[in-house]
Amino acid sequence: MSALLLLAPVFFLFEIWQLVLCERYVGIRQIARSADPRELGLGELTAFFWSTMLFAYWLWTLALLLLPFARIHALCFLAIFALGLAVRRNCRLPWLLVVLTLEGAVRLGFLVSLCALAWRRL
């Protein structure tokens, strides 16, 4: 078993944290008061860790392409990232939370599948 699969629970927790942050910055309350999430000001430390984890997530996904038994998961992650980015760039603010939540839920499903794959290979 590859050590790369052991990182799946870390990224699972990151996805949950990301969904919480999305709700905070693009949530129902923000939409109701027509607040632009870009004007809310993300804390410097939070922005640093979020950006670092996103970069690590991408590197991890690309590294999964090297594992034959996890390659399909990696390709699905890349497709979800690309499709989510394309949809998010073209949707209005009220739909952004819906898109982010669905995208995160699909990625969480694939992470659960990867965790199960890692557990079976132990």
* Through-space gap between termini: 7 Å
Strand content: under 5%
Number of strands: 0
Helix content: over 70%
- Mean pLDDT equals 85
Radius of gyration: 16 Å
Low-confidence stretches: none
Output the structural class: mainly alpha
Order of helices and strands: HHHHH
Bulk shape: elongated
Per DSSP, the total helix count is: 5
For the largest beta-sheet, the strand count, sense and barrel status come to: none
The count of domains is: 1
What can you tell me about this protein's structure?
- The chain has 122 residues and is an all-alpha fold.
- Helices cover 75% and strands 0% of the residues.
- The chain has helices at 8-26, 28-32, 44-64, 71-89, 93-120.
- The radius of gyration is 16 Å and the shape is elongated.
- The mean pLDDT is 85.
Topology, element by element:
Layout: H1 8-26, H2 28-32, H3 44-64, H4 71-89, H5 93-120
Characteristic key phrases:
single chain; 122 residues; mainly alpha; 0% strand; elongated
Describe this structure in a few short sentences.
The protein has five helices and no strands. It is mainly α and 122 residues long. It has one domain.
